[in-house]
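Entry for the shared binder. Reason: the reviewer on the internal report wants the predicted structure included alongside the sequence.
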Amino acid sequence: MVTLNYQEIIEKICKDKGVPQEEVEAKIKEKLNQLSDLISKEGAAHIVANEYGVKVYETQTGPKKVKVSELNPMMKNVELNIKVATVYEVRSFKTAVREGKVCNLFVADDTASCRLVIWDEKLIKEVEDGKIKEGDILKVSNGYVKQNDRGYKEVHLGGQSTWIINPKGITIDAVSVSGGGSGPKSERKFLKDLKENDVAAVIGTVVQIFEPRFYDSCPDCGKKVLTEGDGFICGQHGKVESKPQGILNIVFDDGTDNMRIVCFRNNITKVLGLEVIEVKDNPDKFREVQRSVVGKQLKIQGRINRNTFFDRLEMMAFSVDDADPKELAMELQE
């Protein structure tokens, strides 16, 4: 099953029900307002589609050939042609239920870049044997797409996945390498100067904090898990005991502008000063923390994304640290 993206959901509702796009978008915006903007626009679109009685999942009957920019979480049986930008070391892992190896490649085509996560032993062996080099072209078949906690889309290759190295007749000349194998580099900027896709460091003050949302995750890898019967299933580690993971939204102001920033995992702890689980289902504790966090001065590094529904820029935080008083003092002098 493949989920549709936001625009595709709207188009399907309009087509199936014969309603104007403006009506659908208004209902989605109303739903977001009702839920205090604590769900994504795609999530609100799903709810509205359900209210219209429109199914937003399509059965995929064959391979789906896509460009990297077209990747959508929950896609399966994906085919794409990519060029290898960076080859990372193979890592070993061991959990209570599984052990093995995993390898990451950073890859790109002429539209965008992404991480390729390899779980299959045969493919990993080819990497270990040096058969995959930077600059090689891969024709990947039967991959599946996931979105990581930083909001980036990844292609995963499991036991049914295959690739062809440097296939005949396929060339990739212009390669988009947004992000990168060495990790994003953050340039110090002011909020007023930020643009979409910037990777930047900002220093400022927390002026608003929203109650965290939670989802069930794997205790080993932190990925979102699926419900199966009375338990939970992780795509990498099988049946697991779920662990709540938080998503925290704050509004950050640096004196030039303000912006919503989304935080995950350890970054939430750095903002709140405690483990996020301590405020789960405890509104009194959250209000206490909220009072102490508002006014906190931080240095945050992250990537700038555009929320197309509200037409505003938002930051996905990579790291959160207490602001350096000396750095703040120098900025005040300037």
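Summary line for the report: The chain is about 20% helix and 35% strand.
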